[in-house]
Amino acid sequence: MKVVGASIAAAFALTGCAPAGLDNASDYGAEPAANAVDAAATPSPGAEPEDAAEGDDDAAEGPELSDDEVTTELNAAKVKRMGETVQNEDGFVLYRFDDDKVKPEVVSNCNDDCAKVWPPAVINKGEKPKLDGVEASAVGTVTRKDGTLQLTIDKWPVYTYIGDTEAGQWKGQNVGKKWFVITPDGKKNLTCLPAPSKAVAPPADDEEEGAANESGGDAAADEGSDYSY
User: Fold this and answer.
1) Averages of pLDDT over each 10 residues, the chain, 229 residues
2) Does some domain include residue 229?
């Protein structure tokens, strides 16, 4: 038994990840590493996003978003066990979605209930996010189905996850085998890959977002439900 225990401990030391049997909840929520920006990263405060999706210039004016709806910062930050992440101005980790398209054109395929669970990082037309540790040349936008502009990194649309209830958490990693923490260069961060899990249930239409997070943010979806996003 001692030998087996030592082997398990060694595996944890090497991977720093949750065992395959654990659920997608607080069992492997990451602790923030003081939201420290990688010392090797070169900050680019206020840099203008480039490589916007084709057709953005000709798109109709989207809805005007309030200050609390837009993403004003993209910050490179390292968290324990996961390593490189990109976080918004509130310290929440951003993700990319395998069902999105980047060729031949950029398309966000997370809409409706999906977007309630994975809120897109959006911005008003003509505005720029402050960049820290994320290259301006990697940042662009794509026009969503509802007309809003979503930020992209290396053409991949980026999102937060309502299952993350605290800054620095990454409970959305490997949800549905489609959602992954995004790195500052737009790649999937596969440093820690927990067992695949279901997304949390979308909040009911008559619930405030805060109430939805409180009631469902820390738990996986009901066993009988299949949220495919």
Assistant:
1) 44 47 40 34 40 42 81 97 97 98 96 97 95 98 96 98 97 97 98 95 68 46 56
2) no
